[in-house]
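TICKET: design request
STATUS: open
ATTACHED STRUCTURE:
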């Protein structure tokens, strides 16, 4: 058996063993016990200023996911069992990242005695660039906890479980709203306006407001836990009706029906991701896990809202796609360069062969750039990263087919009036996304992948030659200068795994990455 197949078999067996731990044969209330145990460990780590490599957001998400996937029975949950489950969840997050990247062909596996040594096949500098770009746009100088919130926390009896008064909740929600708005407006690739209509009478602004109310409450829980040295308050649970009433009081201009719909979309269910549906449901109770609730949730909620109603998906999807006009506007800043979009290619029988999404031509140099635009929402987790890279690879196949037809003459495009003819231009072809660079090599020569965030980070383009040079020979971070290769060792049963990874340089600044190497 090949080493990678052997490792895959071991991963599958360990994942199955985790599902059979006795702690899972339990009553539904055990979910709360397990999350409390995990958040208590996390809070203790923070209080002791320990910097471990435990991805607590992923551990909490794994526990919630398992609760929905694994059948439960009866019985209380002891601390020993809860500890076993938390350790299994940590191992599972590492296994899932290993499994996903291994199946995608991203790892080279070697067996040395009782150890598997795993190394990336692909260029780690691409992930480093993504992490640097993500850090560069992160909003700075966000407001800290307000005096109103601080005073309430300090005056609160240690054993009290009463909800904060309206003025405290309002201050926390406004602080969270500032963070959500700052995140949305910092994106160089743009965002949908507050007034944009989603399904069911919802608007983007309403989604942002409800998310801010929930996020503010979660942040208040975290602040109380740290100030009062009570780790159990890091996690909050309350009746769903209470959460709705609390949010409605904070948002009198948003209907109860809209709040209810948004809360439902923020609540985890089978088939969803905890990173975008971070609220856990336990019968009629909602569990709020602060580490899972971030401003990035809003993009996925918008996309889900567009997909709920097929009649609305067209307009929402079209508006999402129209954000690709950013590329046209950006390239249009180059002096003397002609830019157009959606140029149709036709075969000799007049059937459509495809579209050139965005085209830029320098008539004097006879050079052209043709971009196939894909505009998914930003990925938060490794499976979402992999899905976007699948899209990019599929788009490259589409580009190669169209390029082949155009260069062979089996299909033609009619260029806009005043432009050089298509065969007179030396073309560069690429697939472009809004945020994510593609770590996986594309399956075709001389078709490139890039992101608007990366290209725009270079500032106003000076010439089409410069744009093409940046696209074909990207300026990436340098190993040993901008980041360093690191390793992490862990056990899978009796087997040792040595993962050579590239945590993006200063992890305390950029936070954990989305890809397997940075989150394993």
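STATUS: resolved
RESOLUTION: sequence designed for all positions
ATTACHED SEQUENCE:
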């Amino acid at each position: 058996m090949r080493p990678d197949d052997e490792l895959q078999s071991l991963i599958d067996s360990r994942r199955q063993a985790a599902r059979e731990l006795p702690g899972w044969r339990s009553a539904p209330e055990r979910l709360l016990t397990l999350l409390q145990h995990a958040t208590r460990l996390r809070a203790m780590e923070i209080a002791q200023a320990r910097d471990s490599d435990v991805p607590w957001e992923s551990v909490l998400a794994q526990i919630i996911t398992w609760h929905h996937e694994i059948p439960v029975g009866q019985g209380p949950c002891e601390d020993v069992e809860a500890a076993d489950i938390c350790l299994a969840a940590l191992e599972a997050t590492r296994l899932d990242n290993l499994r996903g990247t291994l199946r995608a062909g991203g790892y080279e596996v070697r067996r040395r005695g009782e150890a598997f040594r795993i190394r990336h096949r692909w260029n780690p500098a691409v992930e480093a660039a993504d992490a640097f770009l993500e850090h560069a746009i992160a909003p700075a100088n966000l407001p800290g906890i307000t005096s109103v919130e601080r005073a309430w926390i300090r005056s609160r009896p240690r054993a009290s479980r009463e909800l904060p008064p309206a003025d405290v909740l309002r201050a926390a929600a406004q602080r969270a709203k500032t963070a959500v708005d700052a995140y949305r407006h910092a994106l160089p690739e743009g965002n949908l306006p507050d007034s944009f209509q989603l399904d069911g009478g919802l608007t983007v602004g309403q989604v942002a407001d409800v998310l801010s109310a929930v996020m503010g409450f979660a942040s208040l829980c975290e602040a109380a836990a740290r100030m009062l040295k009570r780790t159990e308050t890091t996690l909050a649970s309350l009746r769903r009706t209470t959460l709705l009433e609390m949010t409605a009081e904070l948002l009198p201009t948003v209907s109860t029906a809209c709040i209810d719909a948004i809360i439902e979309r923020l609540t985890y269910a089978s088939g969803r991701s905890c990173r975008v549906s971070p609220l856990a449901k336990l019968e009629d109770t909602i569990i709020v896990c602060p580490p899972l609730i971030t401003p990035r949730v809003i993009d996925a909620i918008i996309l889900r809202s567009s997909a709920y109603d097929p009649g609305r998906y067209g307009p929402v999807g079209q508006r999402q796609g129209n954000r690709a006009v950013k590329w046209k506007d950006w390239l249009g800043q180059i002096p003397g360069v002609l830019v157009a979009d959606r140029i149709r290619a036709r075969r000799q029988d007049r059937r459509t062969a495809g579209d050139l999404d965005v085209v830029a031509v320098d008539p004097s140099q006879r050079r052209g750039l043709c971009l196939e635009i894909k505009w998914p929402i930003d990925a938060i987790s490794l499976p979402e990263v992999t899905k976007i890279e699948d899209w990019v690879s599929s788009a490259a196949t589409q580009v190669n087919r169209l390029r082949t037809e155009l260069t062979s003459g089996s299909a033609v495009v009619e260029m806009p009036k005043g432009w050089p003819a298509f065969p007179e231009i030396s073309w560069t072809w690429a697939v472009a996304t809004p945020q994510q660079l593609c770590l996986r090599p594309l399956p075709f020569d001389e078709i490139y992948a890039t992101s608007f965030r990366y290209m725009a980070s270079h500032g106003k383009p000076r010439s089409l030659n410069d744009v093409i040079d940046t696209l074909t020979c990207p300026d990436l971070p340098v190993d040993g200068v901008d980041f360093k290769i690191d390793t992490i060792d862990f056990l899978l049963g009796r087997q040792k795994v040595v993962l050579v990874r590239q945590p993006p340089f200063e992890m305390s600044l950029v936070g954990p990455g989305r890809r397997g190497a940075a989150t394993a």
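CLOSING REMARK: The chain has 18 helices and 13 strands. The CA atoms of residues 207 and 262 lie 6 Å apart.
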